[in-house]
Amino acid sequence: MTQPDLAPTDVIHDIGYRSYDGPRLGRRYARKSLYVQSLRGAYGLGRSAKSKVLPMILFAVMCLPALIIVALTIFTDRKDLPLQYTRYAVVLQAVITLFVASQAPQAVSRDLRFKTTPLYFSRPIEAVDYVVAKFAALASALFLLTAAPLLILYIGALLAKLSFGHQTAGFAKGLVSIALLSLLFAGIGLVIAAVTPRRGFGVAAVITLFVISYGAVSAVQGVADNQEKWHVIGWLGLFSPITLIDGFQTWFLDATSAFPDAAGPPNAAAGTAYLLVILAILAGSFGLLMRRYRKAGLS
Protein backbone atom coordinates (compact mmCIF):
# COMPACT_ATOMS: atom_id res chain seq x y z
CA MET A 1 0.00 0.00 0.00
CA THR A 2 1.49 3.32 -1.07
CA GLN A 3 1.77 6.27 1.29
CA PRO A 4 -0.12 9.41 0.28
CA ASP A 5 2.03 12.35 -0.83
CA LEU A 6 2.63 14.76 2.00
CA ALA A 7 1.75 18.39 1.32
CA PRO A 8 4.86 20.57 0.99
CA THR A 9 5.61 22.67 4.00
CA ASP A 10 6.50 26.38 3.90
CA VAL A 11 10.13 27.20 4.44
CA ILE A 12 11.62 30.57 5.41
CA HIS A 13 14.98 31.17 3.80
CA ASP A 14 17.51 33.59 5.25
CA ILE A 15 18.59 35.53 2.15
CA GLY A 16 20.72 37.97 4.06
CA TYR A 17 18.92 41.33 3.95
CA ARG A 18 20.97 43.98 5.69
CA SER A 19 20.49 47.67 6.26
CA TYR A 20 22.57 50.05 4.14
CA ASP A 21 25.70 51.11 5.99
CA GLY A 22 27.51 52.93 3.16
CA PRO A 23 28.00 56.68 2.73
CA ARG A 24 24.89 58.88 2.62
CA LEU A 25 25.38 61.85 0.32
CA GLY A 26 22.49 63.91 1.72
CA ARG A 27 20.47 66.87 0.49
CA ARG A 28 23.32 68.76 -1.13
CA TYR A 29 24.18 65.92 -3.48
CA ALA A 30 20.52 65.27 -4.25
CA ARG A 31 19.92 68.96 -5.01
CA LYS A 32 22.99 69.05 -7.25
CA SER A 33 21.87 65.91 -9.10
CA LEU A 34 18.41 67.39 -9.69
CA TYR A 35 20.00 70.61 -10.98
CA VAL A 36 22.30 68.77 -13.41
CA GLN A 37 19.47 66.51 -14.62
CA SER A 38 17.17 69.51 -15.16
CA LEU A 39 19.86 71.50 -16.97
CA ARG A 40 20.60 68.60 -19.29
CA GLY A 41 16.89 68.11 -19.87
CA ALA A 42 16.51 71.74 -21.00
CA TYR A 43 18.63 70.88 -24.05
CA GLY A 44 17.21 67.38 -24.48
CA LEU A 45 20.37 65.65 -23.27
CA GLY A 46 19.62 62.21 -21.86
CA ARG A 47 16.21 62.27 -23.55
CA SER A 48 14.88 61.14 -26.91
CA ALA A 49 16.21 62.59 -30.17
CA LYS A 50 12.90 64.40 -30.70
CA SER A 51 13.38 66.28 -27.44
CA LYS A 52 16.71 67.68 -28.65
CA VAL A 53 15.38 69.19 -31.89
CA LEU A 54 13.71 72.40 -30.68
CA PRO A 55 16.28 73.54 -28.08
CA MET A 56 19.17 72.86 -30.44
CA ILE A 57 17.45 74.73 -33.28
CA LEU A 58 16.81 77.70 -31.00
CA PHE A 59 20.44 77.61 -29.85
CA ALA A 60 21.62 77.65 -33.46
CA VAL A 61 19.23 80.50 -34.33
CA MET A 62 20.62 82.52 -31.40
CA CYS A 63 24.21 82.04 -32.60
CA LEU A 64 23.71 82.50 -36.34
CA PRO A 65 23.28 86.32 -36.31
CA ALA A 66 26.44 86.63 -34.20
CA LEU A 67 28.41 84.67 -36.78
CA ILE A 68 27.06 86.90 -39.56
CA ILE A 69 27.93 90.05 -37.59
CA VAL A 70 31.48 88.78 -36.99
CA ALA A 71 31.93 87.97 -40.68
CA LEU A 72 30.72 91.44 -41.73
CA THR A 73 32.95 93.11 -39.17
CA ILE A 74 36.06 91.25 -40.30
CA PHE A 75 35.56 91.48 -44.06
CA THR A 76 34.40 95.11 -44.12
CA ASP A 77 37.11 96.39 -41.74
CA ARG A 78 34.63 98.00 -39.37
CA LYS A 79 35.93 99.91 -36.37
CA ASP A 80 33.24 98.52 -34.05
CA LEU A 81 30.56 95.85 -33.93
CA PRO A 82 27.30 96.95 -35.58
CA LEU A 83 25.31 95.66 -32.58
CA GLN A 84 26.11 96.25 -28.93
CA TYR A 85 26.54 93.26 -26.63
CA THR A 86 23.72 94.54 -24.42
CA ARG A 87 21.34 94.87 -27.39
CA TYR A 88 21.76 91.33 -28.72
CA ALA A 89 19.30 89.62 -26.35
CA VAL A 90 16.76 92.41 -26.80
CA VAL A 91 16.84 92.02 -30.58
CA LEU A 92 16.48 88.22 -30.35
CA GLN A 93 13.91 88.23 -27.55
CA ALA A 94 11.50 86.12 -29.62
CA VAL A 95 13.94 83.20 -29.65
CA ILE A 96 14.49 83.51 -25.90
CA THR A 97 10.74 83.59 -25.30
CA LEU A 98 10.25 80.40 -27.33
CA PHE A 99 12.99 78.68 -25.35
CA VAL A 100 11.42 79.65 -22.01
CA ALA A 101 7.96 78.67 -23.23
CA SER A 102 9.15 75.23 -24.34
CA GLN A 103 11.49 74.38 -21.47
CA ALA A 104 9.79 75.84 -18.37
CA PRO A 105 6.85 73.41 -18.67
CA GLN A 106 9.29 70.59 -19.41
CA ALA A 107 11.07 71.39 -16.13
CA VAL A 108 8.05 71.27 -13.80
CA SER A 109 4.79 70.40 -15.58
CA ARG A 110 5.77 66.80 -16.33
CA ASP A 111 6.55 66.15 -12.66
CA LEU A 112 3.12 67.47 -11.71
CA ARG A 113 1.31 65.65 -14.48
CA PHE A 114 2.82 62.23 -13.75
CA LYS A 115 2.78 62.86 -9.96
CA THR A 116 6.50 62.18 -9.55
CA THR A 117 7.11 65.22 -7.37
CA PRO A 118 6.32 63.37 -4.11
CA LEU A 119 9.11 60.94 -4.96
CA TYR A 120 11.60 63.81 -4.89
CA PHE A 121 10.33 64.90 -1.50
CA SER A 122 10.32 61.44 0.07
CA ARG A 123 13.88 61.96 1.36
CA PRO A 124 16.20 63.83 1.62
CA ILE A 125 15.08 66.62 -0.80
CA GLU A 126 12.62 69.21 0.48
CA ALA A 127 10.47 71.69 -1.40
CA VAL A 128 13.06 74.46 -1.20
CA ASP A 129 15.71 72.17 -2.71
CA TYR A 130 13.41 71.30 -5.60
CA VAL A 131 12.56 74.94 -6.31
CA VAL A 132 16.19 76.08 -6.09
CA ALA A 133 17.39 73.30 -8.40
CA LYS A 134 14.70 73.92 -11.03
CA PHE A 135 15.09 77.70 -10.88
CA ALA A 136 18.88 77.51 -11.16
CA ALA A 137 18.74 74.92 -13.96
CA LEU A 138 16.42 76.94 -16.21
CA ALA A 139 18.32 80.17 -15.48
CA SER A 140 21.59 78.42 -16.35
CA ALA A 141 20.12 77.04 -19.57
CA LEU A 142 18.98 80.54 -20.54
CA PHE A 143 22.38 81.98 -19.68
CA LEU A 144 24.09 79.44 -21.94
CA LEU A 145 21.62 80.27 -24.70
CA THR A 146 22.30 84.01 -24.49
CA ALA A 147 26.00 83.95 -23.53
CA ALA A 148 27.14 81.78 -26.45
CA PRO A 149 26.42 84.42 -29.14
CA LEU A 150 28.02 87.13 -27.01
CA LEU A 151 31.14 85.00 -26.75
CA ILE A 152 31.13 84.60 -30.53
CA LEU A 153 30.87 88.38 -30.92
CA TYR A 154 33.70 88.93 -28.45
CA ILE A 155 36.06 86.44 -30.06
CA GLY A 156 35.19 87.81 -33.50
CA ALA A 157 35.85 91.38 -32.34
CA LEU A 158 39.29 90.39 -31.08
CA LEU A 159 40.02 88.58 -34.36
CA ALA A 160 39.03 91.77 -36.19
CA LYS A 161 41.59 93.59 -34.01
CA LEU A 162 39.06 95.92 -32.43
CA SER A 163 39.91 97.70 -29.19
CA PHE A 164 40.54 95.05 -26.52
CA GLY A 165 39.54 97.28 -23.60
CA HIS A 166 36.36 98.56 -25.23
CA GLN A 167 35.24 95.10 -26.34
CA THR A 168 36.02 93.50 -22.97
CA ALA A 169 34.02 96.16 -21.14
CA GLY A 170 31.10 95.72 -23.53
CA PHE A 171 31.25 91.93 -23.22
CA ALA A 172 31.26 92.15 -19.42
CA LYS A 173 28.23 94.46 -19.43
CA GLY A 174 26.47 92.09 -21.79
CA LEU A 175 27.08 89.16 -19.42
CA VAL A 176 25.65 91.11 -16.49
CA SER A 177 22.57 91.97 -18.53
CA ILE A 178 21.86 88.43 -19.72
CA ALA A 179 22.51 87.00 -16.24
CA LEU A 180 19.71 89.18 -14.89
CA LEU A 181 17.55 88.40 -17.92
CA SER A 182 18.06 84.66 -17.39
CA LEU A 183 16.95 84.86 -13.76
CA LEU A 184 13.95 87.04 -14.58
CA PHE A 185 12.69 84.96 -17.50
CA ALA A 186 13.28 81.69 -15.65
CA GLY A 187 11.32 82.86 -12.62
CA ILE A 188 8.34 84.08 -14.62
CA GLY A 189 8.32 81.00 -16.86
CA LEU A 190 8.46 78.53 -13.97
CA VAL A 191 5.68 80.25 -12.03
CA ILE A 192 3.36 80.06 -15.04
CA ALA A 193 4.34 76.47 -15.89
CA ALA A 194 3.86 75.30 -12.30
CA VAL A 195 0.22 76.37 -12.33
CA THR A 196 -0.87 73.58 -14.66
CA PRO A 197 0.30 70.00 -15.25
CA ARG A 198 -0.66 70.39 -18.91
CA ARG A 199 2.48 71.23 -20.86
CA GLY A 200 0.57 72.69 -23.80
CA PHE A 201 -1.29 75.13 -21.57
CA GLY A 202 1.97 76.16 -19.96
CA VAL A 203 3.64 76.82 -23.31
CA ALA A 204 0.71 78.93 -24.53
CA ALA A 205 0.49 80.89 -21.28
CA VAL A 206 4.20 81.78 -21.24
CA ILE A 207 4.16 82.94 -24.85
CA THR A 208 0.98 84.94 -24.27
CA LEU A 209 2.37 86.80 -21.26
CA PHE A 210 5.67 87.74 -22.88
CA VAL A 211 4.22 88.66 -26.27
CA ILE A 212 1.18 90.60 -25.06
CA SER A 213 3.07 92.51 -22.37
CA TYR A 214 5.80 93.55 -24.81
CA GLY A 215 3.31 94.40 -27.55
CA ALA A 216 1.19 96.50 -25.23
CA VAL A 217 4.17 98.39 -23.81
CA SER A 218 5.62 99.02 -27.28
CA ALA A 219 2.27 100.27 -28.59
CA VAL A 220 1.75 102.71 -25.72
CA GLN A 221 5.37 103.86 -25.98
CA GLY A 222 4.75 104.56 -29.66
CA VAL A 223 1.76 106.71 -28.79
CA ALA A 224 3.79 108.58 -26.17
CA ASP A 225 6.55 109.12 -28.73
CA ASN A 226 4.08 110.62 -31.22
CA GLN A 227 2.91 112.99 -28.50
CA GLU A 228 6.54 113.80 -27.59
CA LYS A 229 6.09 112.61 -24.02
CA TRP A 230 9.54 111.03 -23.79
CA HIS A 231 9.62 110.97 -20.00
CA VAL A 232 6.56 108.68 -20.06
CA ILE A 233 8.30 106.24 -22.41
CA GLY A 234 10.92 105.44 -19.79
CA TRP A 235 8.34 104.65 -17.11
CA LEU A 236 6.27 102.41 -19.39
CA GLY A 237 9.15 99.95 -19.69
CA LEU A 238 8.39 98.75 -16.16
CA PHE A 239 5.46 96.68 -17.42
CA SER A 240 7.17 94.08 -19.62
CA PRO A 241 9.97 91.60 -18.81
CA ILE A 242 12.22 92.44 -21.76
CA THR A 243 11.71 96.20 -21.42
CA LEU A 244 12.59 95.87 -17.73
CA ILE A 245 15.97 94.49 -18.77
CA ASP A 246 16.32 97.21 -21.41
CA GLY A 247 15.64 99.97 -18.89
CA PHE A 248 17.96 98.43 -16.31
CA GLN A 249 20.92 98.13 -18.65
CA THR A 250 20.29 101.59 -20.10
CA TRP A 251 20.54 103.22 -16.69
CA PHE A 252 23.08 101.04 -14.89
CA LEU A 253 25.23 99.68 -17.76
CA ASP A 254 25.25 102.73 -20.02
CA ALA A 255 23.62 100.80 -22.87
CA THR A 256 21.69 102.32 -25.75
CA SER A 257 17.96 101.86 -25.15
CA ALA A 258 15.72 100.11 -27.65
CA PHE A 259 12.83 102.38 -26.61
CA PRO A 260 11.53 104.95 -29.13
CA ASP A 261 14.11 107.74 -29.54
CA ALA A 262 16.37 105.71 -27.20
CA ALA A 263 14.41 107.22 -24.30
CA GLY A 264 15.47 105.12 -21.35
CA PRO A 265 14.63 105.83 -17.71
CA PRO A 266 14.22 109.63 -17.42
CA ASN A 267 15.84 110.05 -14.01
CA ALA A 268 17.47 108.26 -11.07
CA ALA A 269 14.10 107.43 -9.51
CA ALA A 270 13.01 105.63 -12.67
CA GLY A 271 16.34 103.84 -12.99
CA THR A 272 16.11 102.64 -9.39
CA ALA A 273 12.52 101.57 -9.99
CA TYR A 274 13.67 99.22 -12.75
CA LEU A 275 16.09 97.49 -10.39
CA LEU A 276 13.53 97.26 -7.57
CA VAL A 277 10.83 95.83 -9.84
CA ILE A 278 13.22 93.19 -11.18
CA LEU A 279 14.26 92.18 -7.66
CA ALA A 280 10.61 92.12 -6.55
CA ILE A 281 9.65 89.83 -9.44
CA LEU A 282 12.54 87.48 -8.67
CA ALA A 283 11.62 87.30 -4.98
CA GLY A 284 7.94 86.96 -5.81
CA SER A 285 8.58 84.19 -8.32
CA PHE A 286 10.56 82.19 -5.80
CA GLY A 287 7.93 82.75 -3.13
CA LEU A 288 5.09 81.70 -5.43
CA LEU A 289 6.93 78.53 -6.42
CA MET A 290 7.46 77.64 -2.77
CA ARG A 291 3.81 78.28 -2.03
CA ARG A 292 2.77 76.20 -5.03
CA TYR A 293 4.46 73.07 -3.75
CA ARG A 294 3.56 73.61 -0.12
CA LYS A 295 -0.06 74.23 -1.06
CA ALA A 296 -0.10 70.97 -2.94
CA GLY A 297 0.85 69.18 0.27
CA LEU A 298 4.13 67.98 -1.13
CA SER A 299 6.52 69.41 1.43
UniProtKB/TrEMBL annotation:
Domain of life according to the entry: Bacteria
Entry's transmembrane regions: 53-76, 88-108, 135-159, 171-195, 201-220, 232-252, 272-290
Keywords annotated in UniProt: Membrane, Transmembrane, Transmembrane helix
S-adenosyl-L-methionine among keywords: no
Protein name per the record: ABC-2 type transport system permease protein
UniProt lineage: Bacteria, Bacillati, Actinomycetota, Actinomycetes, Kitasatosporales
